């Protein structure tokens, strides 16, 4: 368990995900993205669903952080049920990522204990607020990620990463991962300056559709 935490310290984790309907939505495409991440220097990849965990696991020799997104009325929930966590472990995940916002089927302390005792893996708790982060850390989470800040009613809405949350959690002694809307090298440097243990970058690296749309929107042709 300690080795994954050591391996990720000071590093870039690349989130290799593609939603239903996206041209990259296939385990093979996710595996190719994971290969790019590995060649580029990533210390781990973050992957959605057991089938993508299997694909990434066989493609790269890096720790695989597994999650399983489930569609709810307002947003995707991250691994909100125990069975989903267990299936990720079966698929070869090295870390289980799950939300610690109170919307999972287990209280966070029970989830952390079961991930440790039954799966033998570390838990990455995805949170939206400082209170959720410190609670998850006290409850035994190994990593606390700012993943959900900006996606819940109780967190600030912004197009920028929530580096203030990263700084507050790190200052409180929480092993904090900066995740969500990091898109530039300045964001990455600022996250580490704020005390991050690691950073996760997804869209800005692995979603050419989103990147194309953003740059297209800056063209005269987009106004036609
Ligand atoms: C909110 C939510 O469901 N976030 C998901 C968590 O796994 C992913 O959709 C994000 O891509 C990931 O967090 C990385 O963030 P960004 O793509 O902004 O670099």
Automatic annotation (TrEMBL):
It is an enzyme of class 5 (isomerase). It comes from the Bacteria. It catalyses: an N-acyl-D-glucosamine 6-phosphate = an N-acyl-D-mannosamine 6-phosphate. The keyword Isomerase applies. The keyword Isomerase applies. InterPro entries: Aldolase_TIM, NanE, RibuloseP-bd_barrel. Its EC number is 5.1.3.9. Pathway: Amino-sugar metabolism; N-acetylneuraminate degradation; D-fructose 6-phosphate from N-acetylneuraminate: step 3/5. It holds the Pfam family NanE. Keywords: Carbohydrate metabolism, Isomerase. Converts N-acetylmannosamine-6-phosphate (ManNAc-6-P) to N-acetylglucosamine-6-phosphate (GlcNAc-6-P). NCBIfam families: PRK01130.1 (NF002231). Belongs to the NanE family. This is N-acylglucosamine-6-phosphate 2-epimerase. It comes from Dactylosporangium darangshiense.
């Amino acid at each position: 368990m300690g080795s994954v935490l050591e391996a990720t310290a000071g590093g870039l984790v690349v989130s290799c995900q593609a939603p239903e309907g996206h041209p990259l939505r296939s385990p093979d495409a996710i595996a190719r993205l994971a290969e790019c991440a590995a060649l580029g220097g990533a210390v781990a990849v973050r992957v959605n669903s057991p089938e993508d965990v299997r694909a990434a696991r066989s493609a790269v020799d890096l720790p695989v952080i597994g999650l399983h997104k489930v569609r709810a009325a307002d947003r995707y929930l991250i691994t909100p049920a125990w069975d989903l966590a267990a299936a990720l472990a079966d698929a070869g995940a090295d870390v289980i990522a799950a939300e610690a916002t109170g919307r999972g089927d287990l209280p966070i302390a029970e989830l952390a204990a079961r991930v440790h005792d039954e799966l033998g893996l570390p838990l990455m708790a995805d949170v939206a607020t400082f209170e959720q982060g410190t609670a998850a850390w006290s409850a035994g989470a190994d990593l606390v990620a700012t993943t959900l800040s900006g996606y819940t009613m109780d967190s600030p809405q912004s197009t920028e990463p929530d580096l203030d949350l990263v700084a507050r959690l790190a200052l409180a002694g929480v092993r904090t991962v900066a995740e969500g809307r990091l898109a530039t090298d300045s964001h990455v440097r600022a996250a580490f300056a704020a005390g991050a243990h690691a950073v996760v970058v997804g869209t800005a690296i692995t979603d050419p559709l989103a990147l194309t749309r953003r740059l297209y929107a800056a063209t005269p042709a987009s106004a036609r």
